[in-house]
Design goal:
With 162 residues, the chain is an alpha+beta fold. It has a domain of 91 residues. 32% of the residues lie in helices and 33% in strands. A three-stranded antiparallel β-sheet has the order 10-9-11. A two-stranded antiparallel sheet has the order 1-8. The protein has a two-stranded antiparallel ribbon with strand order 2-7. It starts with a helix and ends in a 5-residue tail after the last strand.
């Protein structure tokens, strides 16, 4: 049952994946723009690691068990377990991570890219991939070849040159 629930949520989350799109934009243009935005964000907001405690230190409880001499009513052999100290756990957190992510997002918007959510049935829009055209099938735009677009019952849309 648990596996089916996990598979269900993976399918749902994959179907609602976010991506960046720009009419007339290509994957290569996006990759170059994102790399430039990322580099600029690291200049503006360099990595500053801060050590954060994720778990406190503790000592495990001590348990003592004894065997009794039933004739004399005394403990003859006792053993203790536990009493082990576990130190606190720490991890490094980059305190500029969120600011850097916001800077990258703002930069991409400034370069004409916009965030979109698509279902798994809607391909990502990159209109001038080599050998591909922008195809409109029922209001959904996607990159396609002329033959595939016609087979899907779509129409070719003009692309915006940059």
């Amino acid at each position: 049952m648990g596996k089916f629930v996990i598979l269900f949520w993976l399918f749902v989350l994959e179907g609602c994946a976010q991506h960046w799109e720009k009419l007339g934009g290509t994957q290569q243009e996006f990759d170059a723009t994102e790399a430039g935005c990322r580099a600029q964000s690291y200049i503006q907001f360099p990595v500053i690691n801060n050590q954060v405690q994720t778990r406190g230190g503790y000592t495990s409880p001590i348990n003592t068990s004894c065997r009794r001499d039933l004739f004399n009513n005394v403990d003859i052999h006792c053993t203790s377990t536990g009493g082990i100290y576990t130190p606190p756990a720490y991890m490094n957190v980059d305190i500029n991570d969120n600011a850097r992510a916001s800077a990258i997002e703002s930069c991409l918007y400034a370069h004409g890219w916009s965030k979109a959510t698509r279902s798994s049935s809607q391909p990502q829009i990159y209109s001038d991939q080599p050998g591909r055209l922008l195809c409109n099938v029922g209001g959904n735009l996607h990159a396609s070849t002329l033959e595939k677009c016609r087979a899907e019952g779509g129409t070719i849309q003009p692309t915006v040159s940059h």
